[in-house]
Write the structure tokens for this entry.
Amino acid sequence: MALKIGLISDTHLPEAGKLLWPQVFEAFAGVDMIFHGGDVHEFWVLDQLEQIAPVYCARGNGEDGSGGRDIQPDDPRVKDAWLLNLEGLWVGITHYVPVPERPPNFTLDRWIERFFPEQRPDVIVSGDTHRECIAQIADVFCVNPGSPTYPHNYDTCYGTIGFLELDAGKADASIWQITDEGIAPFDFDAIPPWKQAHLKSPGS
């Protein structure tokens, strides 16, 4: 049976805002699972997402006190790395992987040895960079949904989420831009809205 999984990462709440954009919850309605790539920062966000579907979350540095933040407690929905067997694929979730790679030290293989020593994933979902990305690195399909609140580390604004579809040993992914009306397919070739706003001259 095919699975549709909502992807989200680096929500940074309540720093980025009091609540997650309502468009996210509308977009995720009907998904089978939700994967959060970490830097939640407070777990009530997971409580809200769990009202839609089961949540699997990577533990980010923001949950471990970076930047003077509160250290978040242990939670059964949160691990340094998840490895799930879904639709004939091994799917890993962790906060950071080096995509794009920066050899010789920052390679995907080194991170797989660290976080997934028991089984090489076919798919890895991550976060941390706040940059949306879909990439095939050797035999591993890598997806980073970006951040819905701090895209590319800009100030709070509409960012991105993603979807992962798994069906009989095949994986596909898509990235979506949050808009006033809901979500729209993300255009990797266009100047993103957050950068457009930044480039506008004062008073324009």
